[in-house]
Design a protein that fits this description.
The chain has about 425 residues and is an alpha+beta fold. It is built from 13 helices and 15 strands. Strands 2-1-4-3-5 form a 5-stranded antiparallel beta sheet. The chain has a 3-stranded antiparallel beta sheet with strand order 10-11-12, with helices on one face. A 3-stranded antiparallel beta sheet has the order 13-14-15. Helix 6 packs antiparallel against helix 13 and helix 9 (about 260-270) runs parallel beside helix 13 (about 375-390).
Length: about 425
């Protein structure tokens, strides 16, 4: 009896000691962020071979936090994968990322357990946290308290969209363009075919013979046209942007972001993890930077932007040639006031796609790929789609011909790389339809 009691007491002491030495971890499953996890989770005493694991899973801008007890070797094996090159572990591209870490003291996993106190690994969608030495939210760029890897991990533009998805979605954009002018609202006179290097005017008449200018009274067209005289034509000269011009930019961007085209573009890119993680406000800032923020092409001057190059056109510093200039409205307006002389067309395709050859302010434009009829909202949307998903390459999109049948056409985009933009976004160098 005495021996039995002694065994019982020893067993109880062993069990008590073993239990006391076990790690206590905070646990929750797929909580919507760390705060939700701490509010709705619970303590759990782990087995003697387990440690606390913290998992941050980011999928299409949604952060899910899971905390649990995990077998020691398995947890450390998971953590070791965080730094694997090319892995989805801790890549934080806002489309598909998992970041795991381990610790072995009581309730040590209540924090997010990033790999480094000054890293954004697992924190790209976190809000401001005064307990952190640096921040990873969008506002950190404004306040200058971002972690060193914020730009690389949180704001990088990535691909991951299939060609078929781009083609299908581009047709949606084309069909959503209810501001496009109809074929009976304009007339053109192609006249003679020419070569893109010719200096001979092969077409004596104007290209546009008629346009229903009531179209230009629509608010979006007025907002667009107001932007066309905001730029210094010649490269190499610093642009001066007035307060009124900034307001005009803002007005046009608001029209775009609030339009059906802008909303659908945001939804498509956000689903792919390419529109940032703070809603339409951040997306609008992305569009502004890509298209309207000034960068340099000549003489280290802030002399250009993607919008100016594509929609307005520029004169090279030599003054003998034109670069950019791919918008039909600008073509019509400049031809109307006599600043543009149409030389002829090089090639044409349905629907209303033209490679045009002309002089602008006595400088030669060899070849301008222009699509006639779409609204500025459509052109900005489809060029942005290709710039973001297929930068520096040919991007296949779908339009509809005169019979309403979808036809595949191609857009060429180039990014400007001489200066690294904020948020790791790439400036629009140019974007235009190609007809080869």
């Amino acid at each position: 009896m005495c021996d039995g009691m002694k065994y019982y007491l020893l067993l109880c002491l062993y069990m008590f000691t073993s239990k006391a030495l076990a790690t206590v971890c905070w646990t929750c499953d797929a909580a919507n962020g760390n705060e939700d996890c701490l509010s709705n989770g619970r303590n759990e005493t782990c087995a003697d071979n387990e440690v606390c694991q913290n998992e941050v899973r980011v999928h299409r801008c949604k952060t899910l936090v899971t905390k649990r007890c995990k077998q020691r070797e398995a947890c450390h094996s998971n953590q070791a994968q965080n730094v694997n090159e090319g892995s989805i572990q801790c890549n934080n591209n806002d489309a598909n990322s998992i970041c795991r870490s381990c610790c072995d003291s009581d309730l040590c996993n209540t924090d997010l357990l990033t790999l480094s106190g000054n890293s954004c690994a697992g924190r790209c969608t976190a809000s401001f946290d005064s307990n952190q030495t640096c921040q990873c939210n969008f506002a950190c760029t404004r306040f200058g308290d971002c972690c060193d890897d914020h730009e690389k991990l949180c704001m990088s533009v990535v691909n991951g969209v299939r060609d078929s998805e781009i083609r299908s979605f581009s047709l949606d954009l084309y069909d959503l363009d209810d501001n496009r002018i109809n074929s009976n609202e304009f007339m053109i006179n192609l006249q003679n075919q020419t070569d893109d290097k010719s200096r001979v005017d092969s077409s004596e008449e104007r290209f546009f013979t008629f346009l229903n200018e009531r179209v230009m009274n629509k608010p979006i067209y007025r907002a667009f046209i107001n932007l066309l005289d905001n730029y210094e034509k010649t490269q190499g000269i610093n642009e001066t942007i007035s307060n009124e011009e900034m307001r005009e930019n803002e007005r046009f961007l608001n029209y775009f972001i609030d339009s059906r085209l802008g909303v659908r573009l945001y939804e498509f890119l956000a689903k792919a993890g390419l529109a940032g993680c703070e809603g339409k406000t951040l997306f609008k800032e992305f569009i502004r930077i890509m298209w309207f923020e000034m960068f340099t092409r000549r003489n280290n001057a802030l002399d250009t932007s993607g919008f100016e190059h594509v929609f307005v056109g520029e004169l090279r510093s030599s003054g003998v040639s034109v670069t950019g200039f791919h918008n039909w409205i600008q073509f019509y307006l400049q031809e109307k006031i006599g600043s543009l002389n149409y030389f002829g067309y090089v090639r044409t395709k349905e629907p209303n796609l033209y490679d045009l050859h002309f002089e602008w302010h006595n400088a030669l434009k060899g070849l301008a790929g222009i699509v006639i009829g779409p609204s500025p909202l459509y052109e900005l949307a489809v060029y942005t789609l290709c710039h973001v998903t297929r930068p520096d390459s040919v991007c296949a999109v779908l339009l509809r011909d005169a019979d309403g049948v979808p036809v595949k056409r191609e857009i060429q985009t180039y990014t400007w790389k001489n200066k690294i933009p904020r948020f790791n976004l790439r400036y629009v160098g140019t974007a235009f339809f190609i007809l080869q």
